[in-house]
Amino acid sequence: MSKILTIEPLGFPWKTQDPFLFCAYHRDEYPSGNDKMGIDTEHLYGRNIGQDFMLKEGWRMYHGSSIPGFPYHPHRGFETITINKEGVVDHSDSLGAAGRFMTGDVQWMTAGRGIQHSEMFPMINEENGNPLEIFQIWLNLPKVSKMVEPHFKMLWAEKIPELLHKDNTGKTTTVQIIAGNLAEIQALDPTPDSWAANKENAVGVYTVKMDPGALWTLPKTSAEANRTVFYYKGESVTIDGQNVVENQRITALAGEDIVFENGTTESYFLILEGKPIKEPVAQHGPFVMNTQEEIRDAMREYSVTQFGGWPWKETEVVHAKNKGRFALYSDGTEEVR
Fold first, then answer.
1. Which residues, in sequence order, are bridge partners of residue 336?
2. Distance CA 115, CA 310 (A)
3. Span 218-274, pLDDT tens digits
4. Residues 146 and 195 sit within 8 Å (Cβ to Cβ)
5. Which of 227, 283, 296, 305 could form a disulfide with 273 if both were Cys (CB 3.0 to 4.6 A apart)?
6. Which 8-state DSSP code applies to residue 50?
7. Residues with Cβ < 8 Å from 25, sequence gap 6 or more?
8. Where, residue-wise, is CATH 2.60.120.10 in the chain?
């Protein structure tokens, strides 16, 4: 019996399984920035500014007008996990929290009962390009947690545990353990009300890089979990004896060890796994609840309260160009890396 359930091409966004709702992979080869950390007007002609999702000249503006990214917008009822592989991301939210995170860092935010936030991509380099590579993942919350207080947390690159596996030929597989447990290496704690906070839910979030020809086994987890492997960069790999080419989505049995044998070039994967929440999902844009009536309640409340309003002067908030990696929390405490 094959341990692989399905193999299909990646789309946009990437299709996920319960308890995950959504995953988007962004790779943008941004040009040099101007003195306002934006992109000069002559580079914006021909783009659908405000809704620029078509890859043109190797990059997109998304919802940004002069700075690429996602200006302030609301969320309720789920969590966002933003994994940064390259580039600069500036966070700001309606609680007054803010941050800048870079290569290897991860932002974890529980929206809970409601929050507004922005994620902008400042062009801090005026001399060369500003490449960006991130994953944006939505993790659902169960009904009991959908109205918890919002919470924002940074997982800094130097603190996120890694698994370095060398096979019998000395070839290396590197796994960044964002959530979960691999080879008795435990991830950092997620936000306190997360579905991932209970280890019995077997939530795993891993990014994987394999050397050419490397051999590695993804160990089994709870048989009740869903497991999805996104093969987003490489040439080809053999997974449980089946040849898989780049840009494929693989679902596999979570209660079985899965053997990966890489091809002749480096290969990169995102792996999402976890026990499903198994509750009804009602979604309208950035609101994810259990019923349509709860969605209507969320929309009515947001129209009145704006989930606390927007405390920043700009809609496309970026921090000072010379500001390094930092996190300013809503209680006033600050981390500087």
1. 326
2. 10
3. 999 999 999 999 999 999 999 999 999 999 999 999 999 999 999 999 999 999 999
4. no
5. 227
6. T
7. 10, 12, 14, 134, 135, 230, 232, 270
8. 20-159, 162-274
**Band of residue 301 on the pLDDT scale cut at 50, 70, 90:** very high
Q: What is the pLDDT of residues 143-188, one digit of tens each?
A: 999 999 999 999 999 999 999 999 999 999 999 999 999 989 999 9
Name the CATH superfamily housing domain 20-159: Jelly Rolls (2.60.120.10)
Length of the chain: 337
How would residue 1 be classed by pLDDT, with cut points 50, 70 and 90?
A: confident
CATH number of this structure's domain 162-274, picked from the four choices 1.10.357.140, 2.40.50.100, 3.30.470.30, 2.60.120.10: 2.60.120.10
The overall pTM is greater than 0.70: yes
Residue 70 CA to residue 107 CA, distance in Å, equals 15
Q: Is 184 buried (19+), middle (13-18) or exposed (0-12) by CB count in 10 A?
A: exposed
Start-to-end CA span in the chain (Å)? 48
Residues 6+ apart with CB under 8 A from 98: 90, 91, 92, 317, 319, 326, 327, 328
Collapse the DSSP code of 304 into the 3-class scheme (helix H, G, I; strand E, B; otherwise coil) and give the result. helix
Type of residue found at 86: E
